[in-house]
Design goal:
Layout: H1 13-32, H2 40-50, H3 52-61, H4 68-90, H5 98-108, H6 110-115, E1 126-127, E2 130-131, H7 138-149, H8 155-169, H9 176-190, H10 201-220, H11 227-264
Antiparallel strand pairs: 1-2
Helix pairs in contact: 1-11, 3-4, 4-9, 5-9, 7-8, 8-9, 8-11, 10-11
């Protein structure tokens, strides 16, 4: 397997600019409005991500929870991992080192880490029709991936590229999707973008199908940008755009209500 060359990435810059404009609008509200508090943004993140009903729905949509107890355990692990990520961001630590992959695996999927502590997978795995690379070259590919993301200036492109390629490498026996999505959101949140979660079965199916088709095309032409890889990047931009818009609406709503309350008082 060859990693996707960074220099062939073609992405919708207009959509990135639109996302950036919404993010700037959010921070203008928080910084300049008299009706907003510094922790409004974090409160919205935590409320949305820690809500049991919502997260159980997300978990089931991702086809990873077999029962309610599994979903609750996933919730506990996700909460711990997100708390860890937030603390790291507060300490000015972005996601950029291999050791952080294993930190996330221990938190998000402790059962997987217990099988092979602090080690990449030692067996062949297959995702749909995609046969993942031989275990012997996984460490080399992961190291190369971390090197490549350092060359990407845009946080959005960096996070999306990392997501696509780490799933393609599939470095762990299990828990790859969970680790990858948390790592992606760590990169996004560090640069003040909202996290991205897939929260319905239809979107999950589309996500898996697009990734599978992208992997298939890259196996045939590893150095050629293709329509399916383009679709994956575009879908991630769409998810981020929706989340950014919803975040703006939520922040604005808080301010409007606070403003009305202050007028009454």
């Amino acid at each position: 397997m060859e990693l996707l060359p960074v220099n062939i990435i073609q992405i919708n810059q207009n959509k990135i600019d639109e996302i950036d404009n919404i993010i700037k609008s959010i921070y203008r509200l928080i910084i300049y409005s008299r009706h907003h508090l510094d922790d409004d943004l974090l409160d919205i993140y935590l409320t949305g991500m820690h809500n049991l009903k919502e997260l159980v729905g997300i978990k089931n949509a991702q086809m990873e929870a077999q029962n309610e107890e599994e979903a609750k355990e996933y919730l506990r692990n996700l909460k711990v991992s997100l708390d860890f990520v937030i603390e790291e961001i507060i300490l000015q630590n972005n996601f950029e080192k291999e050791v952080q992959l294993f930190q996330l695996l221990r938190l998000v999927s402790p059962e997987t880490n217990a099988i092979h502590p602090n080690r990449y997978r030692q067996s062949l795995v297959q995702i749909g029709y995609h046969i993942c690379p031989e275990p012997t070259i996984v460490p080399q590919l992961v190291s190369e991936l971390f090197y490549k993301i350092q060359t990407i200036s845009s946080p959005i492109i960096r996070a999306t590229y990392f997501h696509h390629e780490l799933i393609r490498i599939h470095p762990f026996v299990d828990g790859n999707g969970r680790v990858t999505r948390i790592a992606k959101n760590w990169m996004l949140m560090y640069d003040l973008y909202p996290p991205i979660f897939i929260n319905d079965a239809l979107a999950k199916k589309k996500y898996i199908t697009t990734l599978g088709n992208s992997f298939k095309e890259l196996m045939k032409n590893p150095n050629k940008w293709n329509d399916y890889t383009s679709q994956f990047f575009e879908q991630e931009l769409d998810r981020l755009l929706i989340n950014a818009s919803l975040l703006y609406e939520s922040i604005n709503f808080i301010g409007l209500n606070r403003g009305k309350l202050n007028i009454k008082n």
